[in-house]
Amino acid sequence: MDDFEFFGSKLVKCLNKSATEIIIPDDVTEIESFAFADCTKLISVFIPKSVSKVGMGMFAGCTNLESIKVDENNEWFDSRENCNAIIGRSLFRRSHDTALLAGCKSTIIPKGVTLIEEQAFIGCSGLTSIEIPDSVESIEEGAFSGCSGLTSIEIPDSVESIREGAFSGCTGLTSIFIPASVTHIGFEVFKGCVNLESIKVDENNECYDSRDNCNAINGWKSGPFSVTSHMDLLAGCKNTVIPKGIEVIQSHAFHHVTDLTSINIPDSVTVICDDAFNGCTGLTSINIPDSVTYIGFGAFEGCTGLTSISIPHSVRKIEDGAFLYCTNLVNVEIQNGIEYIGAPFDGCSSLNSLTFPESIKSISTISFGKCDKLKELHIKHTNPFVIEFYIHKILPCIAQQCTLYVPAGTEHMYREHIVFGQFKNIVGE
């Protein structure tokens, strides 16, 4: 009993991370979510008849688990047909009473299962292949997240819903086909699938498409910026060509696609959502067209291959962390039109020159946080007193080493300003 942490009759956590075989005590009625997480040496587990409730992600990261058995006298769950899984009523979608709740690298999904539960196979890197039967209607959030050994997956034409992050971190996947039956695809569905190079959608699908062999999923219902007049790019890969007509690049669409070296954003795009290109370390240049009005949180975070950026006049708002830790970014020019700048360049340690246009109305001084090499800051506004600041303190190293360039004749106003006056060198231009 020392191998487990209990709360009453609930098994909260397995304390013995070296266990290879676990027989759960027969007085346990409930197993907590992630109870056996990262028990990497675990090979087999037995669920007694007393258990009537289980949580999600029970075997997260149990990379060597190959046998899951449920007592045949259990009234709530089973492991029918030696499937090496726990089958029962869905934890969250109660209309599905035949759901696969937890699996392992040896699981065979039985015919009749209608739903693969949230995080059912999360972190199961030993899973190399699995057949999804044509009874399955929904693949839930993070169902196969982190299954890095999975090299292929066939989604049957019974599936209607693929939810958020269902295949995130499946680094072994190289291609995916979305059948005509799918009517809902969540965010981040292929987040971190760095080797994905082919994405195809059945031409008969009424909600999504991969038009013009674009190697992406495009759709009408993919997120918070979408209304009926917007066509969004929901998920892309290293070979994606963004089609003309796309208006929104959705959150995490290219997240950690490290082999993406270049991409053309067409002038139909108006919104680049949060983390859209986060971690695209191979991206060496990006042309943001003058149709874009909004750049979201972390949109280009960690794009260490970028050396210069020009923000067009159409952009009205850049959120915090938009270019966070783009450590090789040297020059940034922001054209007239933008009004709000949060802290998009924090951690851009190579940034040498930064230009803010006359249209600017609000700046966070964290905009230059950790920009240790910043030497030139150009402010085009003729009246610094109309610019709103969220933080009034500039890092001393920047105030000392960086020259502030302002419109000729306004130097005295900038020197009297509570924030700009902290700069040692203020020069008119």
Secondary structure layout plus pairing:
Layout: E1 4-7, E2 10-14, E3 21-23, E4 30-31, E5 44-47, E6 53-54, E7 67-70, E8 86-88, E9 99-102, E10 115-116, E11 138-139, E12 161-162, E13 175-178, E14 184-185, E15 198-201, E16 208-209, E17 217-219, E18 232-235, E19 248-249, E20 271-272, E21 294-295, E22 308-311, E23 317-318, E24 331-334, E25 340-341, E26 353-356, E27 362-363, E28 376-379, E29 388-389, H1 396-401, E30 403-406, H2 411-416, E31 425-428
Parallel strand pairs: 2-4, 3-5, 4-6, 5-7, 9-10, 10-11, 11-12, 12-14, 13-15, 18-19, 19-20, 20-21, 21-23, 22-24, 23-25, 24-26, 25-27, 26-28, 27-29, 28-30, 30-31
Antiparallel strand pairs: 1-2, 8-9, 16-17, 17-18
Structure characteristics:
six-stranded mixed beta sheet; 429 residues; 2 helices; mainly beta
Number of helices: 2
Largest β sheet strand count, sense and barrel closure:
10 strands, mixed
Q: State the shape.
A: elongated
How far the N terminus sits from the C terminus, by CA atoms, comes to 76 Å
Q: Classify the secondary structure makeup into a structural class.
A: mainly beta
Computed CA radius of gyration, to the nearest angstrom: 26 Å
Proportion in helices: under 10%
Number of strands: 31
Beta-strand content bin: 15-25%
Mean of all residue-level pLDDT scores: 91
Low-pLDDT parts are 222-228
Write out the strand line-up for the largest beta sheet, numbering strands in chain order: 16-17-18-19-20-21-23-25-27-29
Oligomer: single chain
